[in-house]
Amino acid sequence: MSLNMLKQEIIEYSKTIGIDKIGFTTADPFVELKERLRTQQQLNYQSGFEEQDVDKRTDPKLIMPEAKSIISIALAYPSRLKKTPKNEKQNRRGLFASVSWGRDYHVVLRERLIKLEAFIKERVPLAVTKSMVDTGELSDRAVAERAGLGFVGKNCSLITPEFGSYVYLGEMITSLPFPPDEPILDSCGSCNKCVEACPTGALVQGGQLNAKKCLAYLTQTKDFLPDQYRDTLGNRLYGMDKCQIVCPRNQNKNFYLHEEFEPNPELAMPPLKPLLKISNRKFKETFGTVSGSWRGKKPIQRNAIIALAYFKDETALDDLIDVMKTDPRPVIRGTAAWAIGKIGGQKAILALKTMETVENDEEVLQEIKKGLAIAKNKLTKESPSRS
After folding, report:
1. Neighbour tally for 365: CB within 10 Å
2. The domain containing residue 334 runs over which residues?
3. Number of structural domains the chain divides into
4. What's the confidence (pLDDT) of residue 386?
5. Which of 70, 181, 227, 267 is the most exposed place for a label (fewest CB within 10 A)?
């Protein structure tokens, strides 16, 4: 069987197992990407989650010496909930970005790739393959772009003609020299909406991202969230997709093609207060199947506390005070202290003053002082209207 024929068979088979787009490219080094990644490292723009070895990220043969080609796949996911839960005053809700709706895409795409590998090895038993999704060494976007699935836009997402940027990506390195597909010759042109809409200025310019300022990255960190990003975070618990939402190429792109990605509204927009004291077991039972749970409950809880402060939710004050007093983790105690100050009032000030006399952790004490300053300032501003 010729490789052209096998390629066609693979394309046809991919449609039967729920792969929405598939493309082929060579295993040649990604020369331009290598230069961009070196620049990112020099500017300290990388998140730290990615593979640090730039050579491995850009030369498939360093990952698999037999590499001759790469197969790139894409699966579309929905951008809107069919039914949005009410965000009520007594029951404020957080928000997981659409990339984390439904079943963890890493698992779903790996399952598709395993089937694709088996299909290839049935026909070419000696074929060598290696698949990866998101956490592998290669850049999924760079592979997909060169394989003709779409083009990388100014928002640093791969934009496909059919599904916009609402696609999950994965790839398979193979020892078979499949004929490569042509890249799509397209671009964002003069459109700069995503750069202008980025709330933290993380999109330094079109196509260049300072990951350390990106809210999608910041929602996944486990330390204290820097002060300048707390109000901007809003009620986001995981991820940030404003740069996708404003993109003209994404207008009216909303696909429910895969049962696995059907969002559960209660998981996509969960109530905030129950998250404050959720156990590890309950967290895994509730959120363990979604990709946004990969860092554990701590970042989600920290973000939930910041969201309650964003809403100035007075109904959460008692819970937050209890968290500040009893949680063993300084980041959670300290963030709760700051949030108590943002909600404000005499009860908040009294609780913060009391904790100031017993707290031993220096970082938490700093957050208590911030909370007190915010609450006192708020009280001062409100007092004239009360007289």
Report:
1. 16
2. 312-381
3. 1
4. 47
5. 227
